[in-house]
Amino acid sequence: MPAGAGSAWAAFGRGTRLIVSVPAFVLLSTTIGFGALARDGGFELAHAVFVTVTTFALPNQVVLIDQLMRGATLAGAALAVTLTAVRLMPMTVTLVPLIKGARRRRLLEIVAVHFVAISTWIEGNRRLAAMPEDDRLPFHLGVGTAMLAMVAMMLTGTIVGYTLVAGVPPVVNAALLFTTPLYFFLSLIATSRSRMDFAAVALGCALTPALYLLVPGFDLLLGGVVGGTVAFLLGRMR
Q1: Three-class SS of residue 115?
Q2: Do 187 and 119 form a contact (C-beta atoms < 8 A)?
Q3: Considering only 38-52, 176-190, 192-206, which range has the smallest mean pLDDT?
């Protein structure tokens, strides 16, 4: 076995353990809420399952169903989903420097960026900096493999939520859907490393309610852009 290969496989194995973790539970619970949302919107079970399998991103799935429930055109719904998916670009840009090892493996790095999601980004920011450089890419690939294995879990949640929605109070469905943003919010706080990071989260939270009243539909997008930009400028001034 080549030198370092044992360590790389061990790092890969640690990454795959994400399938039995808090992010996995969050995915299951939120897809239950998504299945209930799809049925409330008048969609067939086959529609909900198709969206889960082909999209595999809860924020995008919820935005798509929500837009179609509001009577938006397919073009309008596609634009809303695209704006939601744009988050993956800065997440990839900030994560790639962490997964580069001392020896570049470009083909594996290209594969690895396709595993970037909110859960893998959060876990990467939490753990990669403390790892040996050559273990980072295998660990991230392991986390990404675990995320792919969660497709079955998300399908199960979608079917359960769609089937059981009639016997579940609406407030429970809303709470299940809210599990994902709550997990992401707490994870952002946990991975913040500087005052500028905390300021970005705080300003985004403070601005979003007012933006919801002023520009509903763009409130989260503008809250993140404006809050993050102001926090960045304040950090540069300091």
Answers
A1: coil
A2: no
A3: 176-190
pLDDT digits (tens, 9 = 90+) for 99-142: 887 777 888 889 899 888 888 888 888 888 888 888 899 999 99
Highest mean pLDDT among 73-87, 120-134, 197-211: 197-211
Q: Map the chain to HEC letters.
A: CCCCHHHHHHHHHHHHHHHHCHHHHHHHHHHHHHHHHHHHCCCCHHHHHHHHHHHCCHHHHHHHHHHHHCCCCHHHHHHHHHHHHCCHHHHHHHHHHHHCCCCCCHHHHHHHHCCCCHHHHHHHHHHHHHCCHHHHHHHHHHHHHHHHHCHHHHHHHHHHHHHHHHHCCHHHHHHHHHHHHHHHHHHHHHHCCCHHHHHHHHHHHHHHHHHHHHCCCCHHHHHHHHHHHHHHHHHHHC
What is the pLDDT, as a whole number, of residue 206? Answer: 93
> Is 0.70 topped by the overall pTM?
yes
Q: Which two tokens stand for residue 233?
A: 């400028």
* DSSP label of 41: T
Q: Which residues contact 46 (CB under 8 A, 6 or more apart)?
A: none
Identity of residue 125: N
Token code pair at residue 228: 């993050």
